[in-house]
GTPase Der (Nannocystis exedens), 161 residues
Amino acid sequence: RTSVVAIVGRPNVGKSTLFNRLVGARKAIVEDRPGVTRDRLYGVVNHDGKSYIIVDTGGLDFDDESLGSQIRVQAEIAIEESDLILFVVDAFDGIVADDREIADILRRSGRPVLVVVNKCDNPEREIAAQAAHELGFPILAVSAAHGRNAAELHDAVLARV
Ligand code: GDP
Ligand code: MG
């Protein structure tokens, strides 16, 4: 079957922006405030003659849930549905407690994970992004908004699906 790639991560780290970058269109809703993306978002990525389905779990809406349990639910869905998990963190914020909680869930799942350190808009950020190695997964520094390392991101995903 067609491979499924899931995007997970805290609100506001740039999941929707990354989704748009991979799909190549502005299909996701991007907002400055955390937690405002509402739609469950699926897209098809076609690249180098391969295609895969991408899911933005941040599009799932859990009005009644606390932030922590939303993140847990999103991670569980990503684990169940996907062949590869893109775990997005924010180079500006650094690694925070919620990131470590998501990492623990993903690690226990045994699923393939690539940490995408987003908002690496310049080389200095890219160096700081190396701190994400503490999460224990392979990492790739990108800027979803500016397209920095977009080709490397496509290649890294295609190599794993
Ligand atoms: P989500 O909540 O994880 O889906 O995050 P969004 O994709 O909605 O992005 C949250 C905010 O981060 C928006 O203001 C984006 O414009 C911004 N953002 C996303 N990617 C980047 C990036 O590569 N660099 C910078 N500087 N900002 C970004
Ligand atoms: Mg979003």
